[in-house]
Task: structure prediction
Amino acid sequence: MPLPGGAAAYHPDLAGAVREEEAGEAVPRWVVADAARDYPALLEAGARLDRVRDLRLAERILSRVEAHEPPAYVVASDPDAGTLFEREPDPVDGPAELTRLQAAWLDQRRRTAHAAIPGLGALLAAESAGALVAAEMGRTGVPFDREVHDRLLRDLLGPRPSKGMRPRRLQGLADQVAEAFGHQLNPDSTKQVLAAFHAAGVEVKTTHAWELHSVDHPAVEALKVYREHARVWSAFGWNWADAWVHDAVDRGTGRTAGRFRPVYIVGGADTGRWGTDGGGALQLPHSVREAIRADPGWKLVAADAAQLEPRLLAAISGDRAMIAATAADDLYTELAPSLGGERGKAKIALISAMYGGTAGDARQLVQLMRDRFPAAFEKVESAARTGEKGGLVRTWLGRTVPAPSERWWRALSSEEGTKSSASRGRFTRNFIVQGTAAEWALVLLALLRRDLYERGLGELVFFLHDEVMVHCPAEHAGEVSAAIERAAEEATRTLFGTMPVRIPLRPKVVDSYAEAK
DNA sequence: CGGGTGGGCGCG
DNA sequence: AAAGCGCGCCCACCCG
Result:
């Protein structure tokens, strides 16, 4: 499917044709050049796509899969190479764009087969489904109550100030910081704050909260509160709402309702996690979440996967003892007897193993991991070792790390080499876990999206790494909760078959996002 | 003056 | 300077 604008040249009503095909007996899998670019216009015209292959997203995944070997298309002995266009379906009398899309799609299909990675087809399908979800959620938006948001801001900051001024209470905090130092200064200026601490005889290297934590000076507390409030004001305050919250006309009632409409970037992170382009949807502070509210008569069903990454580490490593522990709702509590005795220690042991932490208790707790869960430990260790040497690692379904840069290889033989090598090792160590978690979530989204649509239960409105949120009529909330739990189960089976790993998604029916978690 | 970078901190 | 992963966003600051 080429871009809607250009498509009009040879199809006067693309959206209409799409609607017709989608309603037909055999639902197609559309080949799209770039759903993020092309799908919103179709949605606007009322044409929903059920299944697609997104060539742009697939290309990125494939090119990284292939980074370790010569590209398939220059391998002369490849029997497919010469037959590419012979296998092409009916010739198309369309713009060159269509021919190019078709060739690109066939090429990707051949390369996918050539890569011989069992999960790769599923990954490409899931990534493409993600593109649909992202566009649909971006269009739908998160239900958002501007009045509640305004009240939260006023309580925290004081009334909305005129342009160029700090809110009253924020200015009060700035004054407190200045008073504590005994002179005027801009608390937003690291340079000035650092100089002020030095003048007061406090020899800190940075003004990070964690470094100031152990500093005994009256400015510390005021500065901490100032920064918290300043962040809400600048990144999630009135100006943010003006830019990102729109009014939507409520179905039925005709009332207008606020909708926060971020722009999601599918696969924005190397690990396959999503990013956002403006709007800060993935960093919404807890302090403003109360403003995310269901419409009257509707509910939000918010669900998050507890300890997603360690559960996936258990699965991808095949560590039998750890897989058995995933039967528990709280993995950390379950593993505490084996990992340091307390829940908190078990958590540090697992997180440090996945992140490559060595400080404090971590080193010792990671040793416990090695002793008690050797297969899980070896999985992340070997990923780290591979990365340190410049090797490539993959997620369960085959998403591959970007190859190290030329600069990285050059640095390897220099003074800096040890540091960059260790850093790369921590990245690849974490990549296999975070990346597999991202693809589990993608599969979940794809399954849930279809189920919600087919049964008309509600709409996906938010996704955040290991959380999903559905907005639905109150009477559907129970069914939506069940659908979410089922989708999680099905996603787990899709990735891991009969392996007895458990990855529960816990739905909670709420009126406001602040009540979730 | 406008773009690029680093500090700092929000989220998972 | 997190001891340890992945991001985005804002501000101050620097440089051309």
Notes: The first strand of chain A starts at residue 29 and ends at 32. Chain A has four domains: 4-116, 147-239, 263-307+438-515, 309-394+402-435.
